[in-house]
Amino acid sequence: MTAPWLSVLVPVYNVQDYLEECLASVIEQAGEGVEILVLDDASTDGSRALMDRLAARWPGRLRLHHHAANQGLSAARNTLIDAARGDYLWFLDSDDKLLPGALAGLQAIVREHVPDAVLCDFAVWRERPRWKHRLRGESHRATFAGAAGGPSTDRAALLAGLLMTGQLHAWSKVTRRALWGADLRFPPGRYFEDMATMPLALLRARSHCYAPVPWVAYRQRGSSILSTMTLPKALDQSRALTAFAQALAAAEAAGRLPASPGLHFALAHQSARCLVGAMRFVQNAALPEAERRAAAEQVRADFAAHSPLGVHALARAYARRGWWLRAAKLLRAHGVAAA
Predict the structure, then answer these.
(1) Where are the alpha helices (DSSP H) in 209-258?
(2) How do the residues of the chain divide into helix, strand and coil, expressed in percent and rounded to 5?
(3) What is the pLDDT of residues 168-223, one digit of tens each?
(4) What span, in angstroms and rounded, lies between the C-alpha atoms of 62 and 53?
(5) Cβ atoms within 10 Å, residue 74
(6) pLDDT tens, 221-252?
(7) Over the stretch 36-66, which tens digit does the pLDDT of each residue have?
């Protein structure tokens, strides 16, 4: 059989209320050469039965997979990567959806440029959007701080543009399956798995294109990771960049990637986001004092290990850009960690 040009990978866990709309948004656009893989990660609601009904409604359009026991999002995505046959992989969360024109836009870029990675923007999807959400620009959120179009072979610019926005989610990046060697998978059992994995994948990309168009509708739910923060989640956020920082340093040391001040600042900036986010929980959570101190020291150590700039050097860099509030937040978070 001719291999598909694209595999859309949809992990499923207790999303009975959202799954049909998600898959319909792909089916309605998917032409020849697009395979849709759906994996149920041992849901406890009616998601698996719904998958079977949808497969019967759309015969031959869905490839169904199942985990006998719940293993988490990372493991579900890893199983789907192993099962995919497409040249490109697009991870789509099962409570989100593709916006009209997404697959056509992607295919046009792939046909013309054949890049290793394609980045797109997204829209925040609320059941009851308010005027304040429109004022925040939620109808179009950029994921990349760099030049639109392409292709570009500047990996430092790719990584810097990714890290500067902090939009590190997997579903706004379409990548060649060849980037996902046996040594690159999502980390099972950890939160902030996208932040830990996508920079590593894009470090391998030889070329990229950026489509500054919302292709994904990201459903805003109250059960998101950031809205239900715990100490394990905070510590996973704090250390999410460990493997990438090590891989980047190794690539620069070996001469595979020239050292870039812009990329170093962007990595320091994202490291600061992790520090501030994790310390916000550590500072405010009802934790025993000894546990709070240990967590704070760990978060501080993670920042020092990840960031190419020390906390005071980064604060000065923020000040030079007029980012006074960010500098203040960084120093305050670091002060909490040092307490």
Answers:
(1) 231-238, 242-253
(2) 50, 15, 35
(3) 999 999 999 999 999 999 999 999 999 999 999 999 999 999 999 999 999 986 65
(4) 11
(5) 20
(6) 665 555 578 999 999 999 999 999 999 999 99
(7) 999 999 999 999 999 999 999 999 999 999 9
Taking alpha carbons only, the member of 215, 181, 225, 226 closest to residue 200 is 181
pLDDT of 9-42, one tens digit each?
Answer: 999 999 999 999 999 999 999 989 999 999 999 9
* Owner of token pair 């929980």: 281
Q: Which amino acid is at 121?
A: D
Interacting residues of 212 by C-beta distance below 8 A, sequence separation 6+: 121, 142, 144, 148
- Residue 133: what pLDDT? 52
CA diameter of the chain: 62
Query: Which segments of the chain are extended strands (E)?
Result: 6-12, 34-40, 62-66, 88-91, 97-98, 117-125, 149-152, 173-176, 208-219
Peptide bond connecting 4 to the previous residue in cis, omega within 30 degrees of 0:
no
Structure tokens at 219: 């459903």
The angle that helices 242-253 and 261-284 make with each other, rounded to 10 degrees, is: 160
pTM beyond 0.90: yes
Q: 53 is written with which tokens?
A: 């009904």
